[in-house]
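Lab notebook, bench 4. Still working through the backlog of constructs that have no structural model yet. Next entry is a single chain of 451 residues. Request: give me the structure tokens for it.
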Amino acid sequence: MLKILKDYVGSPEDIKVTMIRPFQYFFRKEASSSIVLAAATVIAFLWANSPFAASYHAFWETELILTLGDYSIHKTLHGWISEGLMTIFFFIVGIEIKREILVGELASAKKAVLPAGAALGGMVFPALVYVAFNYGRPTISGWGIPMATDIAFSLGAIFILGKRLPQSLRVFLSAFAIADDLGAVLVIALFYTKEIVPAYLFIASAVIALLVLANIFWVRRTLVYAVLGIALWLAFLGSGLHATVAGVIVAMTIPARGKYDTDKFLQRVSKFMGHFECPTEGCGYSILLNEKHLNAVQSIELACHDVETPLQRLEHGLQSWVAFLVVPLFALANAGLTVGSLDIRRAVTDPVALGIVCGLVFGKPVGITLFSYLLVRTKIAAFPAGVNLSLLCGVGMLGGIGFTMSLFISSLSFADATLLDFAKVGVLLGSAISGVAGLVFLRAASANRRA
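Model written out:
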């Protein structure tokens, strides 16, 4: 069987490259999406400060009503993006968390300790910094804003440095950013829920039970999870819990096993590969002309579909839509800060903005580096291969790029438009400083490392 695999797949070196490709695909997708995200941010800012600034705010406040019989949902375009499309973003976040827990850097206690500890430090310290600036004020509710790391921008930043940095550093950044996302989801669910409606919460519990049963009984049709997922989203919408959390819960119930195991897959594929009989000069473009070849290709495609897990299929199918459409749309709707109507001096000196900027720029790297150092120093964990304290500190700085999740939590924290603008100033400024500082520091650290 191994000989068949070697003949049809390639040499052991080729197989090794194939084994690490899923992370490379994830890394490149997230890194390249940061360009689109940055472009959407710039467009939002320019639009909100152009002669057509009024149209920016009016457009996103346009009401869109979804009606089904006697049931209707009234939301603005901004609301549909924040509570509707962002649910798909949270679904992908949930899938990434589940994948990392099952087979990634969070799959075992030994592997998970360092990124989980770094994520915990990167959440606790920024929150404490923000609280220090806002203690005793109503604005203390924004303590969760500087806790999150934007995985697209942070991976995009590290992508700029290319091969100067070890692969293990990128994996570590991805792992702690995903663990950080899990913490942010828990914070949103536990601390940013204003009111609970028991009847809808009961319905949500029933739908979750159905999702779990579907997983237990090996239901692999994604349509079943899509229908139940929509039902859960509607129940959360009425329950008082933030509807986007439904995305994470549905993701956790998506099956992570295919229809059959790898051994059966290899048997089926090797059988179908035997149907390709070619002359010495090669087959050429035979698929359309040779029905036997066409049937073999279709059978191999079906075998690949059956062995692939629904978790993988949904992640690969939706990740591009989320990275290149959902998150940029969210940035377009939320990053439009109208400077002309804002007192900049007051904005940057307000405790809200100061707490966020200092939390992202100082709290994040200190928390990530300190917790990681203590774990390594006490021999509970070890640095990834090729990574030293300086590189880890630089990655901690990139962890201060909050953006997407920080803007999202800002909208949950403040109903007052002025305070929300102050929070946006803090997020944009803190993320920009963190990104530049992290790149400069990592470039210097990598140069010293090579020297």
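Notes after review: The chain has 18 helices and two strands. Residues 1-20 have pLDDT under 50 and may be disordered. Flag for follow-up if needed.
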